[in-house]
Amino acid sequence: LMGVAKKRHAENLRLAKKAKTEADDESDNAGTSTAATNSNSNVDTLANTNTNTIHIYDLCSGHGLTGMLFAACNPGGRNQKMVKTILVDRVEPPSHKVLRTLISEVCPWVQAHDMVKFMACPLESFG
Question: More exposed terminus of the chain, fewer Cβ within 10 Å: N or C?
Answer without folding.
Answer: C
